[in-house]
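Hello again,

I reread your note about wanting to compare the complex against the isolated chains. To keep things tidy I'm splitting this into two emails, and this first one only covers the full assembly. Below are the input lines as submitted, including protein chains and any nucleic acid or small-molecule components. They are followed by the predicted structure of everything together. The single-chain runs will come separately.
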Amino acid sequence: MSDPKRFLLAAVMGWPVMHSRSPLMHNYWFDKLELAGAYVPLAIEPGKLGPALRALHPLGFSGCNLTIPHKEDAMAIVDEVDEVAKAIGAISCVVVRSDGSLFGTNNDWFGFINNLKQEQPGWRADAGPIAVIGAGGGSRAVCYGLMREGATEIRLVNRTRERAEAIANEVGGPIAVLPWEARHDALDGVAMAVNTTSQGMVGQAALDLRLDRLPNTALAADIIYIPLETPYLAAARARGNPTINGLGMLLHQGRPAWKMWFGIEPEVTTELHERMQRSILGH
Ligand code: ATR
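Full-complex prediction:
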């Protein structure tokens, strides 16, 4: 449990970092829970992650989140990497222990799965085949989470096939790698299709994916949250599919981080969701 006399501190380290919506979310929780504390964005250049992480303890930080480009590099810096971060191959959350040592884990899979559970209460990983498009860091967390929840078939497609094969090997379980050209047909009969590529993100081209094979009942998910509705999600919604965007994944991964840093698990409320949406929409 956190010490009420201590000013609670946590951060996000990235490069760039000023676009991050994490400070808004964590500072909302400090306010709501009436705790004295702050969550700050720290712009840490590539190559300076080691000294930055080592400074957390003397500065009194409980821990930090990591974003681009630090998630993989942190694996070689922290003192202990848990099994989850090892399986995903990246650290999203660092915890500073009382002796100053650094513990690295990954909460992105938890964010993805728990957002699904909150937004789609009947959702089950074993409801049918799941298509996952993309094989970067986001895909690793999504595939790990889906496997952990008992997915029975994941069809994984990526422009660069080797990266998809590496996920299938490292995450394990029933992950079938299909060629990039097969992505449209891979949607045939699925219960869910997830975009984990950067396609559709602000400033990027739309994901090149035809939805004609996607069953009308299938859940279309994206891990992108800027924009809130990618062209892929807009196309899925237009044909009547339920959709889920990436904002909730960001919100829910914050809960276990707080538990580890401050001993409290905060809630993802409608008010928090709306506040984050307003910030992303620019008002
Ligand atoms: P993240 O950690 O956010 O997932 P990443 O590791 O850079 O980011 O992964 C980006 C994903 O988007 C990858 O699956 C990438 O495909 P490649 O592995 O072939 O690079 C995918 N991606 C990026 N640009 C793409 C494009 N123009 N067409 C298809 N996929 C693309």
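For quick reference: Residues 247-262 form the longest helix (16 residues).

B.
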